[in-house]
Amino acid sequence: MVHGFLGGSAQWQGQVDALSGTCDVIALDLPGFGRNAHLPAIQSIPAFADWVVDQLDALGVDRFNLLGHSMGGMIVQEVARRAGTRIDKLILYSTGALGVLPGRFETIAQSKARAQSDGPRTTARRIAASWFLHGAQSPGYEECAAIAEQAGPDAMLAGLDAMQAWSGVDALAQLQPETLVIWGDRDRTYAWPQTEQLWQTVPRTSLAVFPDCAHAVHLEKPDAFNRTLIDFLTKV
Known about the structure:
Elements: H1 13-18, H2 45-58, E1 64-69, H3 71-83, E2 87-93, H4 108-118, H5 120-129, H6 141-148, H7 153-164, E3 178-184, H8 192-201, E4 205-210, H9 217-220, H10 222-234
Parallel strand pairs: 1-2, 2-3, 3-4
Helix pairs in contact: 2-3, 4-5, 4-7, 5-6
């Protein structure tokens, strides 16, 4: 599992528990975020992908299923380009193939400017609120905000730059693993055209749309999300 911008491995505890009888779960903390906030920030999506592959190699993991959320979904698309034959099943969750994020609640440039003017803590809490249908009043918000606050200003700006500079559109038709695309129909970060592009372009793709969910489906409707994961991962 690869988290997104301002995420961390701790956000996946519900999925780690739910999947424990189905498969072993490795939840990574990307450099600059979560428990690896002390590591130097990475400047590009391809460099993040290389780091993920290096971690799996260091753990001796040859074949794997791969889930990426948000920015993590961009990263796992790059991993699939580099190591597609090692991936059994691919899950692209609340993500897209255009890093400029057309239709986002605010542009990347606006996020960068506000991160510099408001400071990292305020920015982390504000952006985390956008992941939930009911914002900061949602169950799970405080936990996500606390994870987001671990990222420093360098990691925030580097992550935003990495997304803005990236496009995976040209590679979508070459992604070979069986793929599941997951999207919440009230997502403020990735609009429907990004999701539809993944669904219609990546070969061997299924689509799961969750109603009345924003960007953090796994926290807003965890039981339904977990059942969907297990069904996809265990399907022959």
